[in-house]
Specification:
The chain crosses the membrane at residues 12-38, 107-129, 136-157, 177-203, 229-249, 291-311, 318-341, 361-386. With 387 residues, the protein is mostly helical. It has helices at residues 2-42, 48-55, 59-69, 90-100, 106-128, 133-145, 158-173, 177-188, 197-211, 219-224, 227-235, 238-251, 256-259, 271-280, 291-311, 315-329, 336-341, 344-354, 358-380. The chain is built from 19 helices and no strands.
Amino acid sequence: MALENAARANSGIRLMVITVAAVPLLFLLSGLAVRYAAFASVSADPSLAAYFRAFCKWDCSWYVGISEQGYERFPIPGHSNVGRWGFFPLYPMLVAGIRSVSPFSTLLIATVASLACGYASCLVAWPLLEKNMRAYVLYCAFLMSGPFSFYFATFLTEPLFVLLTSCLFLALKRSNYLAAGVSCALLSATRPVGVLAVFATVIRMFEDHRAKGGSVSAFPRWLIGRPDLLVAILISPAGLFAYVLYLHVLVGDGFAFVHVQRAFGRVAGNPLLFLWDGLSYHPTSGWLPTAPQWSALTAIAGLGLSVVLAVRRQYGAALFCAIAITLPLTSNLASMVRYVVGLAPLTMLAAVLLSASRPTFAAALIIFLATCYFMTVMWLGGYLALV
């Protein structure tokens, strides 16, 4: 009887592993099919090469240039007067490394790599979602076959950013601070806001300290007495520091990634005023919200979900997401939809909330899959809110 029970348990574990691996793969394939159908409906050239080119919009072209040509020294006659320095190097470096040992084009490699990062993000999310199958299905559907799945099917940093963020919070969940520090270092070389994840690491350390009976006032002394924790904190901004040093050597300005933002129309201002201006930008005809309204509403929704994370005592994730939304919001609303979609704690929380009951789970799943086609068409058409 004991052997039979053990066999049944092993069989159940194998079935669960297969299911966890198969769910994101299913949505990956369905997302590819739906997005290609959307592409074929608006393109006269149905070839795969045209497909990859069509999805490479906005920042994608910058990452292709970095991967193939590196960062330029300013000025370069005949080139754009806007430097590539505002785009962080880790993902273009990875794609360039793969291209150096393979015969495939940059876009093909980047597309496959983005899909692979999305798939891996789903697998890492399984323990973060407390092995909640309904939430897991919704999360996988959202990333791989949902309304914004095109962000994870081209050369943008969101796929790698989501994967590294998920790895960081999984490491924190398991109190593996060295792995969290390495993940944060890689995040800080992927996007500027990635370095902010170090706050989540420190908060988790503080929570562990308090759980062991330590006082608030004793936390700094306890932290200093733990070299392993100090190393995890100190290596967290390593990617950002390395990029600053590189830019200093290349162009003589280590903060060129900040200063070049003016060339993209990003000037520091009051985030509340940017939100108000976006909400006040009413459509001239029809009832659909304008692109600024969509961006402002998305930012508000993201901040609202951050508050929910705090209420659920996920303080590190809440602070990271709130700052990661507010910081770019101090310049303007550009790319706000993409920034919010790329915050894994928020999309996981949304999946958990929507999976609370069978009706909301079914409705959300249907909406995710149904809107994939139409949002892909909007992306291909250059809809400004999706930049």
